[in-house]
Amino acid sequence: MSHRTPSDGSHTSRPTSSPVSRRGMLALLGLGAAAVATPLLGGCSSGEGASPVRDSAPTGTAQRGGTVRLAFAGSGADESLDPTVGQAPCDLARHMIVFDQLFVFADGTARPSLAIAAKPGARGEGCTLTLRQGVTWHDGSPFTAADVVHTFRHRASPDRAFPSELSTYFDLKAARAVGDHTVVLPTVRPVGDPATLFAGADLHVIKNGSTAFTTSSTLGTGPYRIARFQAGVETRLERHDAYWNGAGNAQTIVLLSIDDPQARANAVKGDQADYASDISVATAKAGLPGAGLQIRSSQEALRTTYGFVLNVTRKVSADPRVRRAIRLGIDREALVEAVFLGFGSVANDLFGAGARHFLDSVPVPEHNTAEAKKLLRAAGATGQPFVVRTAEYESGLNASSELFVEQLRELGLNATLLKVGVTEGFDPAGMKACDAIAFPLGPFSLALTYTRSAAYETLALPDKELNDAVATAISTTSEATRATAWETAQKVMADRGNWVAWGRGDVLSVAKEKLTGIDSHGSPKYPWLGKAGFVA
Questions:
Q1: In this structure, which topology does domain 62-99+222-298+509-536 adopt according to CATH?
Q2: pLDDT, average across residues 303-321
Q3: Which CATH architecture has domain 22-30+301-505?
Q4: Model confidence pLDDT, tens digit, residues 211-259
Q5: ∠ at Cα 198 (517, 309), nearest 5°?
């Protein structure tokens, strides 16, 4: 959310990090700057099953040509063609098919895109990027190492509103081209798996010399180019037939900026759109919106994890007995039933589900209110004030926070709820005055999950074993050592951490039944649309 202050760092092994912008944290959560969904309409589930949904697009080859219209949440006049600025889902969906990244996430793992290899030094010092050959920009000019060097320096410039967080690990200004398809990038601290950091960095490669982004000047290497752009209303994109990974199916893609989830669904029902991203569970629960349409769900590995982060700078949450009491005392099934209405499942207090090295073996904590009350009494926390902070960044966060507060009161805490607006939800000063913060997290790498969330003092856990494990996981070049380090980090969080991740919810959409080629590419809230089209 808003510009954060870095954590004070309780141990020298903990990586220091540059301030994370509100944009950076929104990207971490898997949300955009204007991704404010409407509250739940249905309250608690009636017990009936959720409406039938599909977890995949229709099979078959999409036809060439035609127009595909897709509706995403936008941010009005703040939308931008500049890939370093716009962060609403509509912006992100557009950036991802106009520009390419060095690496992208697929199935929780970094996959090559414009870079085919990122080789670290023997001890994680420095990185050599090998770039893909045969790639052209929308104007027909060749993609080269000079473009990547310009992109690094552009993102590292102090006049950028949102400098790249890669500067925490790499000396971006010192990047240099070695020939046309190799970039040498020095590190400022050891990095053993640079591809994963690049994949999670929201780094879209721009053409050498690019400084302004208008309809006529915006050039990318992606499968579609800008034809028309009206911020907050519509973007029209035309196919780039020379795309290195095969030309798209649709000739034209139209992105519609529609903030309200119900209005997005209605656009599909009324045939103003062919796809609506991120609809509410209440809309999905109501059933299919019309003939020839489908409700689609993200795969289980791409669900959004809902939870609360306990602020250990506050006296009550600082006590590990209190943290354990809360994890034991909350009724996860009740939260899942009330918030997801059948479109989700309970979680095991760990964020990062779906990522490589995620510890699925950690069990969901038992629901034991008697033990929870006993722990609170032993910690002297019974009757103590406990403020829970929430903003509706994600549909159902406020509703889940209300139920969470009720459950905490039943355990003996004097819990109260503080609802704030989205623009102030992650304000550092506001979070510091609260004991718990409602927190949704998208399906991202463990490196992103642990380092960015720890960069906020009020979200961090100052634990030596945890910090040492995360530092090792980031710096080592050994996959076996990395796997062990991430296992250690997650066991610490499960044992004495400050996360109360209670559930994982589906990301739902409405689509024409013949629409295919919607690829989540890491987050289903802003999928990759490069192969969108209709089957016969």
A1: D-Maltodextrin-Binding Protein; domain 2 (3.40.190)
A2: 96
A3: Roll (3.10)
A4: 889 999 999 999 999 999 999 999 999 999 999 999 999 999 999 999 8
A5: 90
